[in-house]
Here is the input.
Amino acid sequence: MAATCPINFDVDYLRQQVEAEYDRVAREPNGDFHFHRGAAYAHKYLSYAWEDLDQVPVLASDRFAGVGNPHRVGIVYPGETVLDHACGAGMDLLIAARRAGPSGKAIGVDMTAAMRETATQAAAIAGLQATVEIRDGLYEELPVEDASIDVVISNGVINLAPDKTRVFSEIERVLRPGGRVFIADVIVARELTVEARSNPDIWAACIGGALQEQEMIELAGAAGLVNARMTERFDCFRDTSAEHKVSKDLEVQGMNFFAQKRFEIY
Ligand SMILES: C[S@@+](CC[C@H](N)C(=O)[O-])C[C@H]1O[C@@H](n2cnc3c(N)ncnc32)[C@H](O)[C@@H]1O
Here is the structure.
């Protein structure tokens, strides 16, 4: 599978580059980046509803760097436990926490300290500190119990993983039987060139490690997830410098994607 093949820069170096990029997003959200950020972008390009965005502290929404809209993939019901496996500044997590309500729980994991601090502060500003918990960790090795999660949310992050098989297997491990996955990620119409895959800037901008739709479906299936399907596409890179760095016929887009853990049959 293309994007899980070894790339010609080392994984630790890649992780440092990714962490440095998103540390900068946390510290300077209005800086110069290859990708869009913020609530206005989320509404205009990704169809987030203002009713949801208005309830998220700007501290979190200014630093939103997703590529699709997991909240259009499915519904989080009151009382459910939601995990955002790389939550960034926490915008999706806080929207999910409101849907889960006071009897639910929303857990955010992220490897970048400045993002975790922002998400923690944003949860407090939103008055959601009782049900939101931010944990330090990697989505390749989630600090989350087996079979404890009803919905895994993911936005713009699977493409960043060199070992996507492991990320999906962790999603499957933490989900309860019947649990759902609401993913937004980047897809490409054809395989990227080795040159594009080997550029850490393009990788950290969420394009270098992007898959094709069918590869994503196969990865979910290989992890044991069922009903995997793409549900929507978004022009998340329109008018960004990333769009100009890759060839047009790659058709780089954001997509929404659903999958589910099997129910156990006794
Ligand atoms: C494109 S941003 C998306 C953040 C958030 N989902 C959003 O929509 O704003 C990527 C985030 O993934 C986090 N990240 C990247 N690789 C990770 C890993 N291996 N484990 C945990 N977090 C990771 C980064 O720290 C960053 O906050």
